[in-house]
Write a structure and sequence with these properties.
Blueprint: E1 17-28, E2 33-40, E3 53-57, E4 69-73, E5 83-89, H1 95-102, E6 109-116, E7 127-133, H2 137-150, E8 156-162, H3 171-176, E9 184-190, E10 202-203, H4 210-213, E11 220-226, H5 228-240, E12 248-252
The protein binds flavin-adenine dinucleotide.
Length: 254
Amino acid sequence: MKSEINIEIPASIFNIRRFEATVAEIIDYTYDIKGILFKLADGESIDFMAGQYVQLETSPYDKVKQKVSRAYSISSKPELQNALQLIIRYVPEGICTTWVHQHLKLGDKVFFTGPYGDFFLRDTEADIIYVAGGSGKAPIKSMLEHLAESGCRRKMTYFFGARTKKDLYLTDEMTAFENVFPDFKYVPVLSAPEPGCDWTGKTGFVMPYFKDAIRDPKNTEAYLCGSPGMINAVTKALMENGIPKEKIYYDSFG
Ligand SMILES: Cc1cc2nc3c(=O)[nH]c(=O)nc-3n(C[C@H](O)[C@H](O)[C@H](O)COP(=O)(O)OP(=O)(O)OC[C@H]3O[C@@H](n4cnc5c(N)ncnc54)[C@H](O)[C@@H]3O)c2cc1C
């Protein structure tokens, strides 16, 4: 017997498209992290939620003949509709990141598809803990820039984990949000500061510092972005501090 079935397709899927863009700016944030601004073709705009990602398509280079696509979180705010920025960390021998770091030039044409993903800010009044490492800063930057446009009174604390001082970037920009939002704190934490460096900030792992930042765990959301190891360790620590698992959102870069 045949019967009709109803299939629900999330509206966001209809937003996914292939875009053509031109490299408009390349910034060396650290020795292995670049910020790249892509300007969309004339008349094009991309509609996404802060936190989502695109799949960047590579072009053949050197001995690499195949084209690959890799996921990169959008680091610019959704309000910037005719361009978007990605923050890309170099992975030794990585196909896409070698292309980006060693071959991509200003003016080059690229293609990407998107937007994808369900890592986006929930529209609630809950307090927020952000935790990022390395290029995991990308989607959090987009979220904060977006909230700065729309206004936000939520209590927010942003922990950024890095090894040494030379792994820190956009520190002034993130700290400046303390003057934009009524209750925001940016907390960079170094796990292995070089001996003799003049670091006076927090050291070790980020997890021991959560306790002081959480005032009402049941009314706190967490947004995490970085390596799978970091996501696992941070999720465990947040749950030990009473934050419900279903309020911990993450994008794992593994
Ligand atoms: C949802 C999502 C969002 C992402 N957003 C970002 C982003 O904003 N910025 C960013 O820099 N990356 C991001 N990534 C990671 C990115 O998609 C690629 O995996 C990464 O850039 C490596 O690609 P590649 O082609 O250079 O390396 P590949 O050729 O795929 O891999 C080469 C080798 O490196 C290993 N490897 C792959 N990734 C890593 C890694 N991250 N660290 C160490 N070793 C690795 C592989 O296991 C392999 O052995 C994201 C991943 C996901 C799933």
